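Subject: Sanity check before I submit

Could someone independently write out the C-alpha cells for this chain? I want to compare against mine line by line before I put it in a report. The sequence has 273 residues.
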Amino acid sequence: MDAKAAAELLRPSVCAMAVLGLGIASIVFGINILSIPFALAATAAFLICGGGNILNDYFDFKIDKINMPQRPLPSGRISRKGALYLFWIAGSVGLFFSLLVGAAFFAIAFFNFIVSSMYAWKLKKTAIKGIFVAYLGSSAFIAAPFVSGMPANVFSSALLPLIIISFFGTLGRQLLMDIRDIEGDEKARAKTLPLTIGKKPTRIIASLFLLIAAGLLVLPYLQKTVSVYYLILAIPAILITLYAIMQEPAKGERIVKKATFLVLFAFLAGTVL
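---
Independent answer below. Compare away.
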C-alpha cells in the first residue's frame, strides 16, 4: 500500500482541524491539554475523522473520477479494497482510544463513527447532507467537556457560541462544496440541495448561514468569556468570510476554510491571553 496515498486518504488537514477544535474547546472548558486523557481523545478524534474520510472516498469513487480525479482512489494510487481495510483499522483504533478516555466520550465517538459511516454510505446523496456534516464539524466542541470524564454542561456560556458558530459555518461551507460538485453529483444521481432547488437558491442559503456564523463571532467577546485578543483574529475572520461570500462557490469554500482556522485560533488567543 502506498503510504503517501494512504495518508492522503485520511485528509490530515481536516482531521487536524477536529483535533484543534477539541483542544481549543478543552482549554475553554478548563481541561489540561497536556494530560493523557486529552492525548487519547485527540488521537481518537483524528482517527475516527480520518476513517470517515476514507469511507467517504470509498463510496465516492465514481463521483471523484469526475470531480476529484487526482485523489488516491480514482487515480489508482491505492485500491478500494486497501482503502476499506484502512477504514476499519482507523475506526477501530480510534474507538478503542475513545473508550480509554471514558464512557461518555466513547458514546459520542461511537455515535460520530456511525453518523460518518452512514453519511458516506447513504446520507451524502440527500438534500440534508449538510446538517450531518455540520454536526460532525461541531461535535468536537460538544465532546470536549467529557475528556475529563466528569459530567459537564456542554451548553455553557463559554462553549455554546463555539458550537453554534461551528455548526452554521460548516453548513454554509458544505453547501458551497455541493454547488462546486454538482456535475459529479448529478451523474451519480445524488439529490443534493443544489440539484433539488438549484444553484442560486442554494448559494443564497449558504451565504445566509455564513452570515449567521460571522455575526455570532462577536458574541463570545460581548459575553466576556474571551479577552480582547480574541477580536484581533475574529474581526479579520468576519471580513474574510464576507469576502468569501462574494466569490464563486469553489473559491469561496476554500476561503471559508481558512477563516475557520482563524476563528479557532481567535478562541485560543482569547482564552489563554
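---
OP: Matches mine. For the report I'm noting this point. The chain has a mean pLDDT of 86.
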